[in-house]
Amino acid sequence: MEALCEAWHLFQEGRFFEVHEVLEEAWREAEGEKRRFLQGLILLAATLHQLQAGRSGLRNLRKAEGKLQGFPSPYLGLHWRPLLEEARRRLGA
């Protein structure tokens, strides 16, 4: 999935707002498990964006954890767990 590849690069560059933009269209078109996974990534990007802006992203982190629970890492070729761990580390959660 091209959107995931682009999102991964944006995550690595710390461009978290753009991650949301890239994944939103793919999320709207997705169904089932894939849709839940993409929503979890979007929430994770929102968490990291909020932290970058000096705000607490704890609420979005908890939502992301709920959506991503049960998915292996990698899933759809994306190693997402390090991103979740980074958000947890930054929040001290």
Automatic annotation (TrEMBL):
It holds the Pfam family DUF309. InterPro entries: DUF309, TTHA0068_sf. This is DUF309 domain-containing protein. It comes from Thermus scotoductus.
